[in-house]
Design goal:
Alpha-D-Glucose-1,6-Bisphosphate, Chain A, domain 3; globular; 6-stranded mixed β-sheet; 3 domains; alpha/beta; 20 helices; 7-stranded antiparallel β-sheet; about 575 residues; TATA-Binding Protein
């Protein structure tokens, strides 16, 4: 059907009093909006669903969420009673309609005869990922749009290994979802009745404690090795992190920390922050105000579902410096390896994992400690998904991360985890403070030892149908016009992941290495309407590497932006 035919079908079948119908009536004369909402079904993939909240097949609403849930339920049922009895665990974040979508999903799975576990209220994504393995469920679902703006919501799907679903599983789920009639094919039940009957189990606080105990068990240094009076600021950006992160700091004995009050409690409109992405330094505005009043050495933030984590650290002049995900990764990789070596617990078969678009400086650090760094595609379904391979080859997983402020310190939590990353960074800051150093000092020591890297990760946001088409044209044009030199330096190697490369599966990404040691990558985002760039340069000084990086960035962005 055309988008107009689908639009009219929704108008015809929705009840007169349905808010979705009223929303569609309000746009009856807006052809662009109608096309945006109905030109496609909201696509399901390895990141699940993600889109703007609203009426339409290309929006997050009870019908699209219901269709996806029924399709996944049918897929689980196809595995038989054992899979149905293992069940599904479902969580949600603080966004608009997250609780409603969570209860709807619970009710649909229960109506299909599948055991359901859920939580009494919002929980972090990493806790959900942990519970999949802890409860031995066949599947996990989290209703969240992670760090997207307030207009969005999403639906993350996990499989029995505790990772977000692989391409193979996502394809089979998609096939099942596409068979569901959105009007007549969704089985449902009453949430409260299913709880009373025991078909839906609401998990108690003991499970939250297990998750925190696991995280706190990752500690490398404790007690007198740490200066627990270090002044710290934390903001959950009005998301899921306020309870577990605060409890973790208390449990670890930190005595001089504060939470940004205006951003402590859940707020689906993210009123005081706007765009709730800790990667964006603007998200730290209130934290910096708190930090200056308190003299804080470290500012920490998690995104609304508490899987992403970012920091600002104080330099020698007292200024707060936002670190990108690579820089925080340098500190964490260095701290984990240095700490285990000092403690005599660094294994001879250690391994770490990073994404293909993450800085190779961390590879230099790992190799200096005799640890092998593996590369995967972006996303923790790939990074944490590498763990079984490591086990099969007699290797010990130590840490995984990617530049988009995602860190996985425990192989029992097979997704990025802002709570455990926060614990390790706070611990590192307290450890170095005891030695008379700051994280700023340590970061500069890393550059001195391993190379002065400059990192830059710009992106171009292009929303809607035309935006998606232009991003596609950009990638096609770039492939057809690959540069032979960039900023006066000859290209040494090109890796196009379109058809896969070595043991890395296919992805729409290109990576170009220059003879001066610099490299860059370009790829469309899998979860947001943007094309992303990653620039890395190394020099004898920070100023030199920054200059090289700026020249490369300017030339490549000019080439990409010339594509209409």
């Amino acid at each position: 059907m055309s988008y107009n035919e689908t639009y009219n079908e929704w108008l015809e079948k929705l009840a007169e009093t349905d808010p979705l119908r009223a929303e569609l009536n309000a746009i009856k004369d807006d052809e662009n909006d109608k096309e945006e909402r109905f030109y496609q079904n909201l696509s399901f993939g390895t990141a699940g669903l993600r889109g703007k909240i609203g009426a339409g097949t290309n929006r997050m609403n009870r019908l699209t969420v219901g269709k996806a849930t029924q399709g996944i339920a049918s897929y689980i049922v196809s595995f038989g009673k054992e899979a149905m009895d293992r069940g599904v665990v479902i969580a949600h974040d603080p966004r608009h309609f997250s609780r409603e979508f969570c209860e709807l999903a619970c009710s649909i799975f229960a109506a299909n005869g599948i055991k359901v576990y859920t939580f009494p209220d919002l929980r972090p994504t990493p806790e959900l990922a942990y519970m999949v393995r802890r409860l031995k469920t066949i599947c996990g679902i989290n209703i969240t749009a992670s760090h997207n703006p307030k207009e969005y919501n999403g639906y993350k799907a996990y499989w029995e290994d505790g990772c977000q679903v692989s391409s193979e599983v996502a394809d089979k789920m998609t096939e099942s979802i596409e068979k569901v009639d959105i009007w007549t094919g969704i089985k449902t039940s009453d949430f409260d009745e299913m709880v009373k009957s025991g078909k839906i189990t609401v998990l108690g606080e003991a499970y939250d404690r297990e998750y925190l105990d696991l995280i706190e068990g990752l500690a490398i240094h404790e007690g007198d090795e740490l200066d627990l009076s270090i002044p710290l600021i934390y903001t959950p950006l009005n998301g899921c992190g306020f309870v577990p992160f605060g409890q973790m700091l208390k449990d670890r004995g930190f005595t001089n920390w504060a939470m940004v009050k205006e951003q402590e409690m859940p707020d689906p409109d993210f009123t005081t922050v706007g765009y709730p992405n800790p990667e964006d330094p603007k998200a730290f505005k209130l934290s910096e105000e708190y930090g200056r009043k308190m003299g804080a050495e470290l500012l920490m933030a998690t995104d609304p579902d508490a899987d992403r984590f970012a920091i600002e650290i104080r330099d020698n002049d007292g200024n707060y410096i936002p670190l990108n995900g690579n820089q925080t990764g340098y500190l964490l990789v260095n701290y984990v390896l240095e700490g285990h070596k000092d403690a005599g617990t660094l294994p001879t078969n250690g391994a770490m994992v990073k994404s293909i678009v993450t800085s190779t400086l961390s590879t230099r650090i790992a190799e200096a400690y005799g640890v092998k760094m593996f590369e995967t595609l972006t996303g923790f379904k790939n990074i944490s998904g590498k763990i079984p391979y490591l086990h099969e080859h007699g290797l010990k997983y130590l840490f995984g991360y990617e530049e988009s402020v995602g860190y996985a310190a425990s192989e029992s939590i097979r997704d990025k985890d802002g709570i455990s990353a926060g614990m390790l960074v706070a611990e590192a800051a307290a450890y170095y403070r005891k030695q008379g150093k700051t994280l700023w000092d340590v970061l500069n020591e890393i550059y001195e030892k391993y190379g002065f890297f400059t990192e830059d990760e710009p992106n171009i946001v292009l929303e809607g149908l035309e935006g998606a088409r232009r991003i596609e044209r950009m990638m096609v044009s770039f492939r057809e016009n690959l540069p032979k030199t960039v900023a006066g330096c000859e290209v040494e190697k090109v890796i196009d992941y379109k058809n896969g490369y070595e043991d890395v599966p296919p992805q729409n990404a290109i990576r170009i290495f220059l003879k001066n040691g610099a490299w860059f990558a370009v790829r469309p985002s899998g979860t947001e309407p943007k094309i992303k760039f990653y620039f890395y340069s190394v020099g004898d000084t920070k100023e030199e590497s920054a200059k090289i990086n700026a020249a490369i960035k300017a030339e490549i962005l000019d080439q990409i932006n010339s594509v209409e």
